[in-house]
């Protein structure tokens, strides 16, 4: 599981953000300030750090410098500062990205996964029963035979793979795949694409084991085998 260090002194933000990130499949450790972050970096292994610039006992720039020097992991700044100086200073110090508060949690998750992929730390190979998905090469194999998905079918499959323990509502799926679709996507279109995806990846599309319907709530991914 991807290990995140969240350095944030606002208790409300850290609690709500931690809950959301955990629901997205991340393991989150919270530090409330610079000193605690330094202690954690010396005793734990992390894959990425989310760092607020304004801290009660220092600042995020010092934490960023320590993260890069001691852990060598990616850093994303969380900042309420809209000034160019803060952004440029953070990037010059080696931060990989920044996002300004208030932000949409799903946008942050997207930024996290993008940074992890760039750093070679994101998961690129998924195995789900007899299905293998190599996101680095954009290839999908079923029982060793390559299968081909449309761009929207592929995007839909990636949404499920990236949320392995989450029940995804139809409205959430529509929101996730909207940017990948060249045409207007509505609720009826989603039904069609889920059927098409099942026809290609399921052994028995009438009794799906990979994309499972949760009656009244949405859909979830079947049991995944991690490589």
What does it look like?
- The protein has 227 residues and is an alpha/beta fold.
- It folds into two domains: 3-118, 3-Layer(aba) Sandwich (Rossmann fold); 125-221, Arc Repressor Mutant, subunit A (Orthogonal Bundle), CATH 1.10.10.10.
- The protein contains eight helices and 13 strands.
- The strands form four sheets. Strands 2-1-3-6-7 form a five-stranded parallel sheet, with helices on both faces.
- Helix 6 (151-161) packs across helix 8.
- The protein starts with a strand and ends in a 6-residue tail after the last strand.
- The mean pLDDT is 84.
Please specify the SSE layout and strand pairing:
Blueprint: E1 3-7, H1 11-23, E2 27-31, H2 34-43, E3 48-52, E4 54-55, E5 58-59, H3 60-71, E6 75-79, H4 84-92, E7 97-100, H5 105-118, E8 125-128, E9 131-134, E10 139-142, E11 145-147, H6 151-161, H7 170-177, H8 187-201, E12 211-214, E13 218-221
Parallel strand pairs: 1-2, 1-3, 3-6, 6-7
Antiparallel strand pairs: 4-5, 8-9, 9-10, 10-11, 12-13
Helix pairs in contact: 2-3, 6-8
